[in-house]
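Field reference: sequence -> structure
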Amino acid sequence: MDKLTPLDRAHGVMETGGDADRLRFYERLADAELFLMLAAEAQGDRIDPKVFPVGGENYVLVFDRIERLAEFAGQITPYAALSGRAIAAMLSGQGVGLGVNLGVAPSSILLPATAIDWLAETLTARPQKLTGRPTELRPPRSVPQAVLTGLNIKLALTGGLARVAYLAEVRYDDGRDGHLLAFVDAIPGAEEALGQAASEALVFSGIEIGEIDVAFFAASDPICARLGRIALRFDLPEPLQSTPRPSPPGMDPDRPPKLR
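Structure field:
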């Protein structure tokens, strides 16, 4: 098994890269399942993270593998398994930073409270709703590879929310040019999550390409045949078949756990 995690690899690239690589690291952090060290067992949706003072600032600690938390703690310790985005939402405005994999992994890093506040704000930005009728569709010739890579990664996390997505350059009836990401046969209620995934892929790519508008169509819509001929296609993975179970507290960033 590869001992390096996606967070390790993103951190390694960030150390020798630029601003775009730093954004990628934060994106991997937001998407990861993290194990947050607690001072006491969780009580319902209320948790009490263990706080460590470092250099006059307070930090809570997270690890991207349970084995790493155990190695750091050296003993049985309570924890909560949460998404990185839920932890950022929980800590936003609290003046508390985040210690990631401290001393037990290549991705060991201290992120100050200002960085966590920025991440939480970035993740809560919602794409704007636009109106306009496409009059011309073209292949997406001007989309940077970093954006395509970001879309590939994000859409791979949305398995089951739509069948397929198409990316094309577009001109609207008001003369505006842009890029269109069209989802086909999205399940009811998934529009916001898919739009947010597209928005984050663009933000965390660190590259300005103008706009990516998101639209939703049924497979029977005539525009899908046009997109199939000229657009770049993203096949979304099929959802894993598993027994439904309630989501643990904190996995929904819109309802992060409460601090005790």
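Note: The helical segments are 6-16, 19-31, 66-73, 84-91, 113-124, 145-156, 191-205, 222-230.
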